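ok so for the tutorial part 2 we go from a plain amino acid sequence to predicted structure tokens. step 1 is just haveing the sequence, like this:
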Amino acid sequence: MKRRMILGALAFGHAALPLFSQIERRRAMYPMVGPYTNALRKRFNTVYRYLNVIDIGHGELAEVLITTRSEERAIELLEQQAFARVSAMFLDPRKAPNLAVHEETVAPESVKVAPRLNRAFEWTHILHRQIYDILATDLSFDDKRRYVRESWNWYRSESGAAFPGVLKTHDLMEHQWFSQYWRQKYSRFNAAIWAYHWYQLRLNEVMLDADLARRDAAITETTAEFRLMFENTDLLPKHMPMAHTIAPRFLAEFPEIASAFDNLHSFHDIYNDILAHPQIPDKRGEVYKQLGEFLSPTGSPERAPMHPLPPGLSREDHRQLNQLEHIEHMAMMILPAAEQMEFFRAPAEHRGHIVAGLRAQMAALWPNFEKKHAEGQHQHH
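step 2 — the prediction. this is what the tokens look like for a chain of 381 residues:
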């Protein structure tokens, strides 16, 4: 047992430290309690079950990346077995758990790698769930707005675990030396993760409707569209969805919360890259370096204008949006509002010409853009 602990320390680059110095204390974090508590589970049980599957999916992928020595085996476990398992639960929600699953249950080893990160993930997921509970009630919109803002203030009180309400630059997710490794090696499960993020943001958006009948119908449609992504995997997103395109009304109403959720989703990509990349021996050290940048209230802000799309886009529009490649999505982050709709509806060749014309602006906004883009072309050839 002692030998196993020492080998574990060596694997994560901490052999020079006494084992007791690596211990990070945990303390429980709890949501606020109010007239909305457990409303989502009671009113929209399929949605609640799907969110439980999403938590399982995040935990399983981290556990496989940490505990599987062979990359080939890890790819098989995630791209085939785990993908099939979560898909089965989305296609038949009766197979999905009706109770939230604690991450330590599905990922007992991964939670030990970077406990401060798991704390930040857990705390932000608690905020996610609390907001869904609030929006699932029949309370007045003014009451919902007040409770959501109280929840945000409660969330911010844990400063060491709260993602800031200022969006971090896309450079951190897309253009670091290790960026995009995870999505290249695990493309199908990565697309599933992006589908999770799409679903979470769309729920934030459609649940804002004060007309309860319209809200309920929109939740049903959004859930059906999400399920369809696992019936037809060609519909899975090809870039990481963000609030300014997926949830523009939620962004306008709660800009700090929307930015915190976008930061959370970006950091999931970064974390997956770090765990998957074979040339990062000190996983914990790199995770904490990146986390420090993301939890900083002011460091590395996004400078792209990111004009929100109009609310109420059709189901077909959202399908077309999801099929944009990540570089096309980044082009939309800097396009004037009047040109965005034309861009994402245009043929791929026309979009390519527009992207080419925006390269200089992209390089100015994201200093590592050109270098990463050149690396990608080299790998492609």
